[in-house]
Amino acid sequence: MAGRYKRRDAQPLASFPADHFLHKTDRIINRLLVAFLTFTVVFAVATAILARTSPHQVNETVWGRVIAELIIAGVFFFYAYLWRKGKFWGYARLLTTSGWGALVVTSIIVLPGKYPLWVRFEQIAQAIILALMVWTLTRPEVRKHFAKKS
After folding, report:
1. What is the pLDDT of residues 49-76, one digit of tens each?
2. Helices then strands, each counted (H, E), the chain
3. For 72-122, how does the pLDDT look when each residue is reduced to its tens digit (9 = 90+)?
């Protein structure tokens, strides 16, 4: 398994000139990750405040979502670190986690369930961020960077 990923590892971003397209892509990814983390922290704080002031608006499902998003936000930064190092594993996980995350968030938004309306609005912002992450990571230049070496 490890050999399969090694064949797709690429040069680290630090080895490219400052004006290289991957540095621009990295800045976009960083901004998206910071936006994801910011929305997650605001979501966590809002949940904590509502749990104190209006406990009926916060259930266990909401707290589970808050905890999951905090963990995912931290993991995203680890994957981005690996991506910058040229590790295909980091790139693949950043891409698949963003893609699956966008699908999960979309299901929270559209399917009936235990999430209050205010949570759905926060999840719309997260879905947009995750969709932009997928779009950024699937640009042909980025995919070419991690193409399998012969």
Report:
1. 999 998 888 888 889 999 999 999 999 9
2. 6, 0
3. 999 999 999 999 999 999 999 999 999 999 999 898 888 877 788 888 888
* CA distances for 5 relative to 40, 49, 89, angstroms: 31, 44, 6
Whether 114 and 61 have beta carbons less than 8 Å apart is answered as yes
Judge whether 105 and 97 are in contact, CB under 8 Å.
no
Contact 136, 32 (CB under 8 A): yes
Q: Among all chains, which residue has been given the structure tokens 């040229």?
A: 86
Q: What's this model's pTM, rounded to 2 decimal places?
A: 0.87
Question: Which pair of structure tokens corresponds to residue 74?
Answer: 């931290």
Structure tokens at 35: 């936006």
Q: Where are the domains of the chain?
A: 23-145
What does the block give as tokens for 140? 């042909």
Residues 127, 61: Cα–Cα separation, whole Å? 18
Cβ contact 91:137 at 8 Å: yes
